[in-house]
Amino acid sequence: MYLHLGQNIVVNYRDIIGIFDIDKTTVRKISRDFLASAEKSGRVINVSMELPKSFIVCKKGSDTIVYISQISPATLLKRSSYAENV
Fold first, then answer.
1. Which of 17, 30, 31, 47 could make an S-S bridge to 7, C-beta 3.0–4.6 Å?
2. What is the chain's alpha carbon radius of gyration, rounded to the nearest angstrom?
3. Which residues pair with residue 81 across a beta bridge?
4. Residue pair 4/76 in contact by the 8 Å Cβ criterion
5. Residue 48's pLDDT is what?
């Protein structure tokens, strides 16, 4: 199954490591450092032209990719729960 992250970007559920709320997690320095490091190494894909609400950490082979999305974590969770029940 796949999860739509916005802007025609979908990821396989198997590849998702975590879905995080940007506002709540970037309060901590470790989260900010993680995102800064991912950005610096070119592993961040911004799929949002609007105010970002979540970031999704995914594995891609041996690498980690971070998607920035305008879709809230609650909505992404609902989508994933719906897909599991289909």
1. 47
2. 12
3. none
4. no
5. 83
